[in-house]
From TrEMBL:
It comes from Sedimentitalea arenosa. Its main location: cytoplasm. Keywords: ATP-binding, Cytoplasm, Kinase, NAD, NADP, Nucleotide-binding, Transferase. One of its GO terms (cellular component) is cytoplasm. Belongs to the NAD kinase family. GO terms for biological process: NAD+ metabolic process; NADP+ biosynthetic process. This is NAD kinase. NAD(+) binds at D43, G44, R48, N113, E114, D143, A151, T154, A155, Y156, N157, Y158, S159, A178. Its cofactor is a divalent metal cation. The gene is nadK. It holds the Pfam family NAD_kinase_C. Its EC number is 2.7.1.23.
Amino acid sequence: MTLRIAFMASEAPVAQTARAALIGRYGNVAPRDADVIVALGGDGYMLRTMHATQALSVPVYGMNRGTIGFLMNDYSETDLIERLGAAEAEVINPLSMRAMDQAGEEHHALAINEVSLLRAGPQAAKLKITVDGRVRLSELVCDGALLATPAGSTAYNYSAHGPILPIGADVLALTAIAAFRPRRWRGALLPKTARVRFDVLEADKRPVMADADSISIRDIDWVEIRSEPAISHRILFDPGHGLEERLISEQFT
């Protein structure tokens, strides 16, 4: 049986050139007709591809034709069928974000990496954090805070000094960004089933924006976040180079 592949690429010339070369060698089908989707670009494009194809239940195999490739495999034109046949799958559930802005409009978005809240003015943000209906931090003064999945724990979360999470840990990382008060609070590890709510205090004076995988909402009043088990993303990796291995290796670099 011939493997049906849909090749998708970022707008970068190097990615478009690679797509043309691969289509010439292996053919191409529409994503809805594919057995596997091959995404060519960097991690940002990989995330966009996963969001765009999440309703198709088709695994995505990324090859690095961008600047960052944590979610990507090395690029090669000659042995793709063999690599796809041997690839190992990692399953990731996204975060579901529900946010209310100051105009009273409700927004919804999904995030594979993280949902982050960021100050949108000259003054620090003030946030109240509630977990599963219980107030855990009545006031966090900070530049922001984020809730990250294991897949996103090596991205913004790690840069904010949050922990790297193994894929199978079934936990989420709640991490402060430049916390001013409590100054030494660096965040918490929460069960994957937790429902986290951020309320923006003094929202008129200290505006805050919410970002879910680069989907941004300005001037928010509150945000509620939970894992979405009904949606599963399957990412394919070459043997020995899966996301679990990359998460472990990242901690020793």
